[in-house]
């Protein structure tokens, strides 16, 4: 059934649940969840890093991922020739508990919106879509996203959460993506994003 039950909605939107165990999932609503946690500690197949276009490491979640993974990650990233805004590239995870890291480059909100008000959202959606495509190409079954662009890149959390959740929904609903991903986790770090996802997830899940 496509109609979410109250309990499945609650499970999917509870931010305090621990989501590291790999449970088999039956319905679309059991696939998507959000958790407030340190992404470098998640035992999922892959995590998505909010990188910058050089891929050489930075602050925020990028810095946390590079320091937890070790120097080898930075070395592998240096061979990738950077990454365009809205695109995604995959590497090994080295000392991290996940198997792979997908590096995506989010839009710098004010720079892109000055060019065209629609650009930040289309680029942010592209980050989520490209990351999911790369994950599926690499046979990943579970994926955890950092809240791309919502840190120093200045994307308002509320709008970022709506775009992120809706783009994931669109991807999972494509017939060719059925049964590819078993788990998609929005890994939140700060209260502002927790509030944003608490609102965005039930809204978007209504349309599953
Ligand atoms: P960007 O440059 O794309 O804005 P930032 O790293 O500045 O990237 O921020 C992206 C998001 O990552 C922010 O919402 C921030 O709260 C979050 N973040 C920072 N450290 C971690 C971490 N260890 N685990 C998960 N998320 C984190």
UniProtKB/TrEMBL annotation:
It comes from the Eukaryota. Residues 19-205 form the Macro domain. Pfam families: Macro. PROSITE patterns: MACRO (PS51154). Gene3D superfamilies: Leucine Aminopeptidase, subunit E, domain 1. SUPFAM superfamilies: Macro domain-like. InterPro entries: Macro_dom (IPR002589), Macro_dom-like (IPR043472). PANTHER family: GANGLIOSIDE INDUCED DIFFERENTIATION ASSOCIATED PROTEIN 2-RELATED, MACRO DOMAIN-CONTAINING PROTEIN. This is ADP-ribose glycohydrolase MACROD2. It comes from Penicillium daleae.
């Amino acid at each position: 059934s496509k109609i979410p039950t109250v309990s499945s909605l609650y499970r999917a939107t509870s931010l305090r649940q621990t989501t590291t165990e790999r449970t088999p999932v039956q319905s679309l609503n059991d696939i998507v969840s959000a958790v407030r946690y340190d992404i470098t500690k998640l035992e999922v197949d892959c995590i998505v890093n909010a990188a910058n276009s050089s891929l050489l490491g930075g602050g925020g979640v990028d810095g946390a991922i590079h320091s937890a993974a070790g120097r080898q990650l930075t070395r592998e990233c240096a061979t990738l020739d950077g990454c365009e805004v809205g695109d995604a590239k995959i590497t090994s995870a080295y000392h991290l508990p996940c198997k792979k890291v997908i590096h995506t480059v989010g839009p710098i909100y004010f720079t892109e919106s000055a060019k065209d008000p629609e650009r930040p959202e289309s680029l942010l959606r592209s980050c989520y879509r490209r990351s999911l495509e790369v994950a599926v190409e690499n046979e990943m079954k579970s994926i955890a996203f950092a809240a791309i662009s919502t840190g120093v890149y200045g994307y308002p959390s509320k709008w970022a959460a709506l775009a992120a959740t809706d783009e994931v929904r669109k991807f999972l609903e494509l017939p060719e993506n059925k049964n590819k991903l078993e788990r998609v986790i929005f890994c939140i770090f700060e209260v502002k994003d927790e509030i944003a996802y608490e609102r965005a997830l039930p809204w978007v899940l209504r349309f599953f």
